Amino acid sequence: MFSKNNTKMNNKKQYEKVNHYGIKKFNAGTASVLIASAFMFLGGAAQAADTNKQEATVAATEKATATEEKAEVAKAETPAVAPKTAEVKEVAPKAEVKEETTVKAEETKAEKATAKEVNKTALQAKISQLDNLFVTLAGQELSEDKQVKTVSAAVELNKAKDLVAQASATQEQVDAQVAALESAINNLSKVEKTADKKEEAKKEEKSEKAVAKENLEKAVSEAKAVNQAATTFETKQVKEEAKKAEIKAAVATSEKEIEKALDIFNSDSSTKEDADQQRKELEKAIEAVYVTMQRAGHRGKVESILADAATQDKKITGKDILKDGETVNAVTNAYVDMNADNTKPVGWGFDTTISTSTLKAGSITKIELTNLAELGAGLAVNTEIRATDGTVVGKVKSIDYKTTTGNNNNKSTPYWGQRTQRGMTYDQRLAEQPAVANETGTYTYNIEWNDKVKDYPNVSFGASNLSGNGYYAPEISKDTPYTATIKIDGRTVLEHTYTRKGQQANYQKQGTSASLSENNGLTYLNNEQTGRSDSIVLKTDSDVRYGVGSKFTIKLPNADFTEFKELEGSSNFVNGLNTASTINPNKGDSITYRPASRWANVKANENNVWILNDGRDSGFTLTPRLISPTELELTVTEGAIQEGSVVSMPLQSLGIEKVIKDKTLTSEYSNITYENGLIKQGYVGNDKTAATLTVSGGESVNGEKEDVITKVPNGWSIVGDGKVQGEPPTGAVVRTFKDLVTGEVIGFEPTRYTGNIPLSEDGSKDYTNVLGNKYDVSNDNVDLVKEVNGEEYILADLPAENAKGTLSVTKTRARDLYSEEELKAKGINGSAFVTPAEYNYVKKTKVEEVNRTIKFVYADNVADLAGTEVFPSQKQTVSYTGSIKLTAEGKAVINSNDRPVYINWKGTNGQSTDLPELAVPQKEGYIASVEKVPVQATTATDEDYEYVVKYTAIQKAKTTFVDEKGNAIPGVAEITEQGGSETPLTKEAEVKAKIKELEKKGYELVSNTYPENGAFDKDKDKDQEFVVTLKAKVVTVTPDQPKTPGTPVDPNNPEGPKYPAGLEEKDLNKTVTRTITYV
Fold first, then answer.
1. How high is the pLDDT of residue 249?
2. What start and end residues bound the annotated signal peptide (predicted)?
3. How distant, in Å, are the alpha carbons of 28, 85, 320, 916 from that of 142?
4. Residue 850, domain member (yes or no)
5. What is the pTM of this model?
């Protein structure tokens, strides 16, 4: 824990009220406004010894205001506005002392000129004495009588000061005023008779209460510093989701304690005990935040965090005095706290006292802040300004905001103007006129006074923004000087120039990813779930756009931790699965769709203000499909998700939830902190619970490659609260026996962790079973063989799941598993949360079937019937029975896919393991692709078979043999055939054989139209015709080569044609006698 005596922090914060914006009050009853006026008019130097010094202070301050309004006083420990009356004793800043000395010398000369005529020494002494008395009274509560006397004394004090300043004053006037002051001093110095021990005790109590509140205030400051450091550390350095969630949860708890602390700090009715108790709670919260930082790897000390926060600021102060001649009408102080490098204001405020002689009903006092921000809730619209007796004398009528370029196009501030689309394209925003201003603008507070204000000589009020909340300046491309000013009624109280640093436009490319962890949370009260948030966050690659048809598929590793479930709908959401759309949003949709980086491809306008991206040009509709309880598919069905986007939506918008299972909150998957058995905080989910992302359909917008991050974080942040009533909640460990293959629970068995808090003979209690404590049943013996419903199960050779860990909140109580009688018999606490220790079993034997489905369909070339069924499908089945393979210990052997290994497979009851032959049924007009489906041999591990028989329309073809004149060759018949459309011709060999036969008979082949490897056509209405043309072979026989009848024409073909008779030599040679007669 940090030191309570951190003097550096205490000194810095001695006058601050962290996040407390209030109207300044003085504790001196109805006269307080005059007392305050006196203090302010005297420049804060109420301890001055004589009137000359008081006058010199006023003159010096006035001169400094008139000639050096831009002077800066950087002494951080000197506040411009004191938070308590008791602190008014602080001396004026050193920067003003030199001025006082100079002015005093000048005024002393003037006084010497009148000293001969009038002696004012006694009057000056009384003025100093009454001033000191006012300081004493300012810290007290006064009776009504003394308040009236205080008012009278203050009036006389102002008269005396005026008299000292008048060169024409007479000695008689001076002496009379001395007497008046002496009388006032005597009246105020008398001890009130009503003061008694009870009153003193009340004052002492009030003093202790004030100290307690100061300590609470310091704790608030320290808590805010630690929270800021923790948030920065978590955002920039912590990578692990669980650690980030733990820090966020601790910071959230601390912020709640800060809110409670501020309520107590601001409440008049709160007690010292309230403040002390809340300070302790706040210190615990600070310690808890720091512990989470340490767990996440932070190596600094909390003292160094606070010291760093304490050395950042630099205070700038300013002052304005409004005078009418010698009469002071208003005194205003202001300050601005700047960060160490003078680039940003981190706090500011003002304090003013105004003479009501300048005010009337309806008068408006204006407080202007430029290049700062608002003053917060303490000076909001309709805030009442009260005199110290509680009378309302005015209120904040309105707060105006403006910039130098005007508040056009709904630019509420330049910061928002540079980001929001406001119905314009990016180029239109870049070129818009007037351009977004390089400033934070001016806030003007209009204070309207009522008729009650004239009842008081002076009125005082002020306000501060101590944390710099609400300061938002635009991002700029070049270093730019900003002038911060605080004005009252147009007069400058403070003016300071700081330089805002320009920055380069840069962003980090992102890949496509998904998360089921971001924005997912569970809240518990007394271990009962009171709230939940199931969300999905999609981030798209900086270079890839996902249009219609693009798919994002998220697959959970299993259903042990969680699973997807379709919602039944509600009054807020459409029933069942539902599209999520930014184009046409449905009832209940809450979709965030924004750029991952506002800095992507940005440009600066003419004022050097970066015009950032804070919107998307396209909308989209996502349609979900629950493929299974562990697989969710999201399809873009309209529009597109732009590149470099973040899409975040509740799963409810899709009609889906993540189911919380019995093991969800167990230590196998979670890291939850318990206190007295109650959930406090933590994170549910780890690497085991991560899902897998697959993406399709994205198109690159610039040719760059798509980058997909497949790991999907999956879990919930946990925040719990509550208070133990009686004994703390407990847990019971129950052995749960599951069928490894089906996941079905087949039995339960209690352990020694029964959820009870047993009482010992000595009266002590055993709190072993309280939630959050550790348990271990990993070494307990379990049965190797169990019989369930007449079937034997064998213990799987796998480690037991969740056999040791932390007793956790689950969905199941012991009374949900056992009857009252069973609980009593087993000695189990029925209200205990059940933590399951899971053991897997498998069946001793397994029957495996191998199937073959035979389909009968029309072939693809059958018009209008292609693929349709000709005959009903037939299913053939063979059955195997195998026995589990055992380890040497008698456990079931499990393969790498977590499935049991069965051996010795045989046909069930001795049946054949071959799928039998099947005769194919015939269809008239069609021909089947096969006549019989063949026998199929199988093994037990075969996948199922499918056999398809296709039917095509019957086609016919004929082949004729003709001579050269087209006449049929005698004795040769035509060849016919038939088959299915586009099936092979079947008579090619027969045609060739016939040709060969005819050749042997003496024919020569002229042509053949029968195709080689031909097929039937698809026209069933027309037969195909093929023609073989041949001619008779002619052999010339000459006389010198006669032939013997009956011998083969072709010696190589003795079975071929034979020479006919008439070709012998005698037939071929004739002797011709010619008789020549001479007459």
1. 94
2. 1-48
3. 6, 14, 31, 114
4. yes
5. 0.51
